[in-house]
Design a protein that fits this description.
Two copies of one chain form a homodimer.
Chain A (H helix, E strand, L loop, with lengths): L1 H31 L8 H14 L2 E5 L3 H4 L17 E6 L8 E6 L20 E2 L2 E3 L3 H20 L8 E6 L7 H8 L6 E4 L7 E5 L1 E10 L14 H21 L15 E8 L9 E10 L5 H13 L1 H4 L1 H5 L3 E9 L2 E2 L5 H14 L5 E4 L5 H7 L4 E3 L14 E3 H19 L4
Parallel strand pairs in A: 3-6, 3-7, 7-15, 8-14
Antiparallel strand pairs in A: 1-2, 2-6, 4-5, 5-16, 8-13, 9-11, 9-12, 10-11
Amino acid sequence: MADLIQEWSEKIHKQLARKQAAATELLQGWVREQTVQGNERGLQEQLACYLQKLGLEVDLWYMDGKELSQHPYFVSPRLDFSESPNLAAVWKGTGGGRSLILNGHVDVVPIGDRLQWKQDPFGGEIVDGKLYGRGSTDMKGGNLASLLAIEVLRDLGVKLKGDVIFQSVVEEESGGAGTLSAILRGYRADAALIPEPTNMQIFPKQQGSMWFRLRIKGRSAHGGTRYEGVSAIEKSTQVLAALARLEKRRNERLSDPLYAELPIPIPINVGVIEGGKWPSSVPDLVKMEGRMGVAPDETMEQAKQEMKQALAGLAEQDSWFAEHPVEVEWFGAQWVPGSVPSDHPLMRLLGETFQSVTGKAPVIAASPWGTDGGLLTALADTPAIVIGPGVTEVAHYPNEYIRLADIFQCAAIFALTILRWCEPAE
Amino acid sequence: MADLIQEWSEKIHKQLARKQAAATELLQGWVREQTVQGNERGLQEQLACYLQKLGLEVDLWYMDGKELSQHPYFVSPRLDFSESPNLAAVWKGTGGGRSLILNGHVDVVPIGDRLQWKQDPFGGEIVDGKLYGRGSTDMKGGNLASLLAIEVLRDLGVKLKGDVIFQSVVEEESGGAGTLSAILRGYRADAALIPEPTNMQIFPKQQGSMWFRLRIKGRSAHGGTRYEGVSAIEKSTQVLAALARLEKRRNERLSDPLYAELPIPIPINVGVIEGGKWPSSVPDLVKMEGRMGVAPDETMEQAKQEMKQALAGLAEQDSWFAEHPVEVEWFGAQWVPGSVPSDHPLMRLLGETFQSVTGKAPVIAASPWGTDGGLLTALADTPAIVIGPGVTEVAHYPNEYIRLADIFQCAAIFALTILRWCEPAE
């Protein structure tokens, strides 16, 4: 099999080099499409055309939110997906080979504070070989690597035994409804690659995570006699402290060596706070929304129970919480944790290919965040491995960027991996 | 002068007793009008008709927000007052007497958490002699007392030397633009009574207050690697602690004996918090809005400076704040502190009248909250004293109520006070 690398490596690299300028412009266009939640249609339609011209069987579909919401794995803050189609494109094999899904999401998170961006967040500006913009790293750069891998193989006239399925899904950033829909539509394969930004580390294990909403009660009063009320904002600081203690406990007992390098392997992040309605009233309600990491070796339910207990424990330090317990709701997004054995055939094959292209041994680690890989592994029986260009450190940040060279290196690794996994037909 | 009390007390009480049922229904109607900010027009028009029928010279006017906003004392979160007219009604005297303004606001604060209300917040339900609803105590009950005082005197055929001016203003809850407009329209008098809920204590001194907005910065990151960002929500807990220390310092040095009974004479209340946009992102910005009490013996500017210094001090305990200072903005509402000397003739006259009606010595105290009295005193040279039915403890709270008996007692005190201050014409 390593002969395939010797045979094809140079051709693939040469073909990729020819495509660099056009591919860079393509990615700039993708970033400029501003595919925040609810605004994915434009880019998905553009991609559908592109893949059709490449000769793949294209499937662009609109999810029925109402129907999909009946599924136990459905999580999304919305049911209307009329501006958010999913896309799959199949490169049909001649038969007898292993199939592979290349799964990536097209949705991007909001830009946050505009003032912290030095560039236009949706400009796609290129400085020193880095392309800037929301979604560049998470994960349009990775999607481009997948697309280029398919494109160069087709340019070079390759025919494969196994199917290659390119997926551009929506809704990954809020729980995976896009990938869920693709699975229910019948898309599955012998394995999957997800080019989320791992800085080209290989992640066989993926942290799960889920979103929570807390309601912290107070008692209203006039601000001028605030001592006669109970401030839900003041009470919230105790809740934040309890969450910090819970996070510490959960991480201290985590022994998986793949997580050894991470300061907080399974973090609890409070992302949104909102409370009170009037500056001169004592606030009687604060809502917090956040994300709780779930270890690969625990269930979602176990994690939920632990959160519940930690919040119930507040009653011991403050009787207010005994009478007004903090309410927890699990809503919106959820990523099932995923795990592929280290000795899975694609793990070995991918590692060898990586080494051959980069000249370095691959770093095997565990993802500090959830991906759609959990769903693919758990629900579609499609073992999913996460590896992609771009660094986690800039995902969801202002000034997000991706190194263009990393995308092309990933494309080369993917092209060779496809060739070896799906096998040439002749 | 005390002869006037002997002569009129019984007549006034009898006439008030006849009016109780109708007056109670009137107040229920007022509460049901839901006069939250921007929804005052209906009740103001209804009041205008009522006062016209009583024979007063009625003036219902719409403020020009743009023009008014040029005034240094203007503070309001809005410029559009098209649904929020002001109302003044003059009972013209025959001349040669002292004039009196009865000033009250028609706007009410929002209801807060609906679930904490046992009654319909705008139902005006009566249980055990208490009328429930937002605005019952703050301050429609007080306004009814003013109106009844005028009405019974007119019923009894009284003619006065001095003018009595009934004012129903908007916008008191967010800074006094209504009273400011009334002053600029020319309304002023030898003194003013403001029936805010003091539980019939007499407040010659009024705490000032102003609204602030703080911006606390963080640095965004993916929630799964939250340790790579800086949470603006976590930083906010340090800001809250700094505000608590500032409040403690400011109150410890307060020596005014009128404030001796209050746990926190000039509180700093954080009423609103809002930060972050996405549960699984580290929040990069938190906004807080609140109210800072201002002592009668300090200027607004001094209080602002002290807040600024306290927030600047955060940089010493955390270098994050040195690089990302908390921003302060003074916005929306502002109540100028006010002070009437204890030996002012209306103070003496009011105290005697109170004693005669209730059989008890009046309690002289200082208001724990700002009122429009500061503007009247400072800008219109109209010394304003605050005294009214209802207890502060229920203002701005769920289940706000007012004891109906307290309103009628206040009406009697006001009727006699008007009679003695403005003097019968014949």
